[in-house]
């Protein structure tokens, strides 16, 4: 039973198959959802040192078609245990966390029903307390408790009560107030045409409730209506088709800026008025420039695959670039660790995927808050006759950048992956033209005169991602020629 539930763990999230389809069986069943809800309550009782009938828990969802049914099962389970529930209906992941710190909500915890950018048949949960998002060990504990629940036991009679709240409205006002306060203007975006691509997720409110309140014209915005089948493109700022769609929309409309969110709005990216994509390294550079003017000397924590050009950019702004393990929770926790030690200070933790967490905002990865920071700069620059991309005009872009996902075919993929990394490091030490990079917090990084490569283990899959970056055209191919023999000689790898 435990192994069945543990298969639903995806790092610090719970994710499963919620809709039957041709290739996957449903494992996030009604019974599993109820058991997980009970597991959440038991875990919370330990965290809060209180009984669950004293809890006030917010529950929200993104636009996925399975969301309403899952929400209903969670709320019914919570109510039967005496919990008072705040039903937030359609909401964003960051806004759900805010229910634990906003005085008007004062929730013990929040449960967000989402599977981020994954296809429509997936769904899951993210869990928050006022201390932040649940850690990996917390999710394991919750699922362990869920597995111990006797499925034959019927739920109690309803003893808790549920009230509805318009969290999206409340969170929109929070964002609007922030931008007005930071700009000192009531209509700081007046005269600007800014379009939003919500990918049919939960982010459409940003156009209708935030941009409109700030004076912007959001004509040309697309896919604002929630649709859990995601018929237009993947709601993912990392998806090339999604970014291309936004770029084309900006150019077609003649807009000043384009904004794109993922399904649950914990990630974002932008497009300049010329259609240029500002995501991954470019987005990190942009928000780093803003943060470093506010907090000179800050440590900028990123994931391991960021570019050398970004490192040079952060250094030129007086910051310290600190690469760490991939995974948004990893970079956030590393920034918190740096701050706790006290010798240095970090105000920004950000992953190339678009997860950006600012110290001023509880180190919460919040795509809407990130965009709010950027829009303050957009307003300032507009008064100077400048565009947002001017802030990163000196960012050195790599000539070539690519990622290979090498599948591990060995049965014990975790152990085999560790073996490959040990051998890859030895290969780097003993091969002319290669140098092992130290220190390195994830996988094995080798550099050449043309650039670098990083081989690491995937966080959740039997896959070894290989990132290659070169500062010169053709350099990536030369790097692959050097390391290709090593990879092809490993029988447990599909390369």
In short:
With 495 residues, this protein is of the alpha+beta class. 36% of the residues lie in helices and 21% in strands.
How would you sum up the global shape? Answer: globular
Q: So how many helices?
A: 14
Low-confidence stretches: none
Termini Cα gap: 35 Å
User: What do the pLDDT scores average to?
Assistant: 95
- Per CATH, the architecture of the largest domain is 3-Layer(aba) Sandwich
Q: Which fold does the CATH topology of the largest domain refer to? A: Alpha-D-Glucose-1,6-Bisphosphate, Chain A, domain 3
How many domain units? 3
Secondary structure class reads alpha+beta
- In the CATH hierarchy, what is the superfamily of the largest domain? Alpha-D-Glucose-1,6-Bisphosphate, subunit A, domain 3
What is the CATH C-level name of the largest domain? Alpha Beta
Number of strands: 23
Radius of gyration, Cα only, in angstroms? 23 Å
Helix amount: 25-40%
How much strand? 15-25%
- Please outline the major beta sheet: 8 strands, mixed
């Amino acid at each position: 039973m435990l192994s069945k539930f543990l298969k639903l763990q995806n790092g610090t999230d719970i994710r499963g198959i919620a809709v039957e389809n041709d290739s996957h069986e449903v494992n996030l069943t009604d019974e599993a959802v109820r058991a997980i809800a009970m597991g959440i309550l038991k875990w919370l009782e330990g965290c809060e040192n209180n009984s669950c009938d004293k809890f006030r828990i917010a529950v929200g969802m993104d636009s996925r078609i399975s969301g309403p049914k899952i929400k209903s099962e969670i709320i019914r389970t919570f109510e039967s245990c005496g919990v008072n529930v705040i039903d937030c209906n359609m909401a964003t992941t960051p806004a759900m966390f805010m229910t634990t710190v906003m005085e008007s909500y004062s929730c013990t915890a929040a449960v967000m029903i989402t599977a981020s950018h994954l296809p429509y048949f997936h769904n899951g949960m993210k869990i928050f307390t006022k201390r932040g998002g649940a850690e990996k060990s917390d999710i394991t504990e919750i699922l362990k408790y869920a597995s111990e629940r006797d499925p034959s036991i019927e739920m109690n009679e309803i003893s808790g009560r549920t009230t509805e709240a318009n969290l999206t409205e409340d969170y929109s006002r929070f964002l609007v107030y922030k931008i007005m306060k930071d700009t000192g203007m009531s209509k700081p975006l007046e005269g600007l045409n800014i379009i939003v691509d919500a990918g049919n997720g939960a982010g459409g409110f940003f156009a209708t409730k935030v941009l409109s309140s700030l004076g912007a014209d959001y004509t040309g915005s697309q896919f604002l209506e929630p649709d859990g089948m995601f018929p237009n493109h993947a709601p993912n700022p990392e998806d090339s088709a999604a970014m291309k769609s936004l770029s084309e929309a900006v150019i077609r409309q003649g807009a000043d800026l384009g904004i794109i969110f993922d399904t649950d709005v914990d990630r974002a990216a932008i497009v300049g008025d010329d259609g240029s994509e500002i995501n991954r390294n470019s987005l990190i550079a942009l928000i780093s420039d803003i943060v470093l003017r506010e907090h000179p000397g800050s440590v900028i924590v990123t994931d391991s695959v960021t570019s050398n050009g970004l490192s040079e950019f952060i250094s030129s702004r007086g910051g310290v670039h600190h690469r760490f393990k991939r995974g948004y929770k990893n970079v956030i926790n590393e920034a918190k660790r740096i701050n706790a030690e006290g010798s240095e200070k970090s105000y920004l933790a950000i992953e190339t995927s678009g997860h950006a967490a600012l110290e001023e905002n509880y180190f919460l990865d919040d795509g809407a808050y990130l965009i709010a920071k950027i829009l303050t700069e957009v307003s300032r620059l507009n008064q100077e006759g400048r565009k947002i991309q001017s802030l990163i005009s000196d960012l050195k872009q790599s000539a070539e950048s690519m990622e290979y996902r090498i599948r591990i075919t060995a049965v014990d993929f975790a152990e085999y992956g560790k073996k490959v990394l040990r051998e890859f490091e030895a290969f780097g030490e003993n091969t002319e033209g290669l140098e092992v990079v130290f220190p390195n917090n994830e996988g094995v990084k080798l550099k050449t005169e043309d650039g670098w490569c990083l081989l690491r283990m995937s966080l959740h899959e039997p896959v070894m991602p290989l990132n290659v970056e070169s500062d010169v055209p053709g350099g990536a191919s030369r790097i692959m020629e050097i390391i290709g023999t090593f990879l092809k000689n490993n029988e447990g790898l599909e390369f």
